[in-house]
Amino acid sequence: MLIGYIRIAKIQSAEDLHIQKDALIEFGCQDRNIYTEATTREEDRFELLLAVNALRKGDKLVVPRLSSFGYDLGEIGRILEKIESKSAYFVILDLGGIVLDSSTRIGASMLKALQSATSLGGEELRERKLEELTSDRRNYARAVF
């Protein structure tokens, strides 16, 4: 089964939503299986969670663009892991002008690359935090002695 998800910014027009929905329907999603929402960057994406939870083994989550998942690499990585843990797939209709379907060999390879990229964000954050802690400890040691 194909499950669609569309997210637009609250400042976008309803026409943008219809354009994205038409693309999902043209790909093969049924209207009743398309989850939509208008959010800001900071807001939770409840409809995305519902769409991911609706996935069953072999299903595909179809989105117009990667940014539909969010803008934070860690968040995108968690969503991709959740989809993979359900033995489901995802399709991005426009990833730099190509369709990415993780059920294909090329798509699966691109998924691994994407997951590697999302993990880099977390590693970079950890490294930055460790550097801050080391610096704080040095500064504290200088102040005490």
Task: Write out key terms for the chains shown.
alpha/beta; 4 helices; 5-stranded mixed sheet; single chain; 5 strands
How would you describe the overall organization of this protein?
The protein is an alpha/beta fold. The protein has a single domain (2-120), classed as Resolvase, N-terminal catalytic domain (Rossmann fold), CATH 3.40.50.1390. Helix content is 52%, strand content 20%. The chain has 4 helices and 5 strands, in the order βαβαβαββα. It has a 5-stranded mixed beta sheet, sandwiched between helices. Helix 3 (73-85) packs across helix 4. The radius of gyration is 19 Å and the shape is elongated. It starts with a strand and ends with a helix.
Task: Please outline the helices and strands.
Elements: E1 2-9, H1 14-27, E2 34-39, H2 46-54, E3 60-63, H3 73-85, E4 89-95, E5 98-101, H4 105-144
Parallel strand pairs: 1-2, 1-3, 3-4
Antiparallel strand pairs: 4-5
Helix pairs in contact: 3-4
Give the distance, in angstroms, between the N- and C-terminal Cα atoms.
Answer: 66 Å
Largest sheet: 5 strands, mixed
Q: What is the strand content? A: 15-25%
Low-confidence stretches: none
Q: What CATH architecture label applies?
A: 3-Layer(aba) Sandwich
Q: Please provide the ordered H/E string of secondary-structure elements.
A: EHEHEHEEH
Relative helix content: 40-55%
Mean pLDDT: 83
Overall 3D form:
elongated
Task: Tally the helices.
Answer: 4
Question: Which fold does the CATH topology refer to?
Answer: Rossmann fold
In spatial order, strands of the major sheet run 2-1-3-4-5
CATH class: Alpha Beta
